[in-house]
């Protein structure tokens, strides 16, 4: 079982933090299908947070199909999250290392690199979203 | 939806001064509601009206549809922990549990004992000799042992050290999960409220400034940074809650109602930002009139 | 609820009991001593002798000596009696005033009144509890004092109506105690702080007691008048009967008051003992002693009236307290 931690200074919503932590645990293999998530009461008590917040996070995960609630028992992991295991990402990683070297020789500081990655990622995702759902992009 | 607490034009006056005025809101059952406001804003008055300790001078307050004043029938539904958690200081915790059993129709003594044992509260020591945190825990355990449908807590953690405060909120959140009790909790510790509350009532100068579900409130507000703005309407902005200006730039915290004019940079806000904006609102104009200084 | 009241006030109750026991330890031995001495000296017989229409001078002399001896020995005892005058006040100050005021001062009313019991029921039980305790205490010491003070008032040829003696015995203390408690409770409800509540209790109790004692008590029933011819050598005829003499004086034959606050007797030399005196020149022929008084046998009636007034006041105050408690927050 995993234990949640909260970053009190983060501007990220509490329930989003919980979702992120579950996903992270799924990604790194800390949680595998069949595992139980901490009980709502225990999370609410140990973090001193509103139980509805925990419920909301678990509901969101359920909607995404990652977990399922079994009434009276608890919430269990249904499937693991996306991508191939880290070991299979060696090739991508090599590409990234090579790219980073080029960025350094071009004079980019680590902060510049992070900013570039973030903006590019956001722009790409936005462009993809616009392509798949052209009607919703106006909102 | 079930309404746990409802006020309508509620007012309370001490002499000629209104401690609470024109107060109308509804709290849905099952929520944990934060009651925020500076000292003297009327938080305790509102809570005392809600538990029937005070008689309204105007309007109405209803607990699950019934007026609580002079109406002992509403008492079993209410759990109340008053400010500074007053208890009979020469009673032991065990005696207080026994007392609760004799003064209440519905009383879960086992629950109270269980909680107090878990917290390591000595049963045979007068509660006056316990620490502030332990005493608050005893008061909470007693309030919960009534198995109330609505639990009202008046600044329960204000006088506690950070550790005791954390422990208090932990046991509160844990037991609320079990019981599904609606909670109305007054506090001016915004960080605590942000974690624990999903509904909010902001009081300031004896009036309700803001009331609603936390998510809705946070969603509805944005911080806007843009060119200096002198009162003209901005596309997509409903009401401006607070505005700060430099010669060229204005920073607004506003309720938005559409797509904001692209001239403005829009930032998300936290609950704390929203609360602070509403609490700061109006303060200076009042002070200026009081000091007879031109605004 | 009764359990709460008992648990909350058991220490106070214990103190009260200890106080009563201590008083009993003082009063019972002294009372027995006085009664023994009273019987030894045959004072009961003496009083009959002295109050006879024509006292035997020799026996009267012996009796007066015995009475003086008794008085010398026990007069200081009446100081203890004064203690009992303030006892109702003490009960009012320390039982009545804190009952609600302390609760509000410490904020515990917010705990108590949000349990399942409404505050009216809370108040009824509490008020009832202290009232019952007060009545028990007052009955014990009021009747105890009657027993204790009998020889003292008798020997001093004092009326039981005399201010201090009337007030500390019989059933009047029950009224006082209840009133003091009710006043304390009511003050505590309307000024819910300990000090103001106690101050109001103190002022109200002392003020009303003095007022009623001085102004009202002599007129509970129309007083009677009596005229006594100037004869014999006893200075104040009728005094030992235990009547409460409100006014006295010497009136001349025409009924006009010639000297108030005085009674005349024959001067020893002027006339034969027991015989009619020659006319006293100052007052003229036919002058007589005049008294306005409440007869001794009205003692219990007056006790009842006095007690009744204070019990009624106590009831009014408790009613006001019950009404007022709805507005305490």
TrEMBL record, chain A:
On whether Chloroplast is a keyword of this UniProt record, the answer is no
Q: Which GO terms describe its molecular function?
A: DNA binding; DNA-binding transcription factor activity
Identify the domain of life: Bacteria
Q: In this protein, which residues make up the domain named HTH gntR-type? A: 12-80
Claim: Coiled coil is one of the keywords in the record: no
Write the record's keywords in alphabetical order, separated by commas: DNA-binding, Transcription, Transcription regulation
Query: Gene3D superfamilies of this UniProt entry?
Result: Winged helix-like DNA-binding domain superfamily/Winged helix DNA-binding domain
UniProt name for this protein: Transcriptional regulator, GntR family
Q: Which organism is it from?
A: Micromonospora avicenniae
TrEMBL record, chain B:
Start and end of every ABC transporter domain? 5-230
Q: Which domain of life is it from?
A: Bacteria
A Pfam family that this protein carries is ABC_tran
Q: Which UniProt keywords apply?
A: ATP-binding, Nucleotide-binding, Transport
Q: Which SMART domains match?
A: AAA
Q: Which PROSITE patterns match?
A: ABC_TRANSPORTER_2
Any one Gene Ontology MF annotation carried by this entry is:
ATP binding
Q: Which PANTHER family would you find in this protein's record?
A: ABC TRANSPORTER ATP-BINDING PROTEIN ALBC-RELATED
Name the UniProt record assigns to this protein = ABC-2 type transport system ATP-binding protein
Q: Which organism is it from?
A: Micromonospora avicenniae
UniProtKB/TrEMBL annotation, chain C:
Membrane listed as a keyword: yes
Instruction: Provide the transmembrane region boundaries.
Output: 77-101, 122-143, 163-185, 197-216, 299-322
Please indicate which superkingdom the organism of origin belongs to.
Answer: Bacteria
Q: What is this protein called?
A: ABC-2 family transporter protein
Q: Which UniProt keywords apply?
A: Membrane, Transmembrane, Transmembrane helix
**Keyword flag Transmembrane helix:** yes
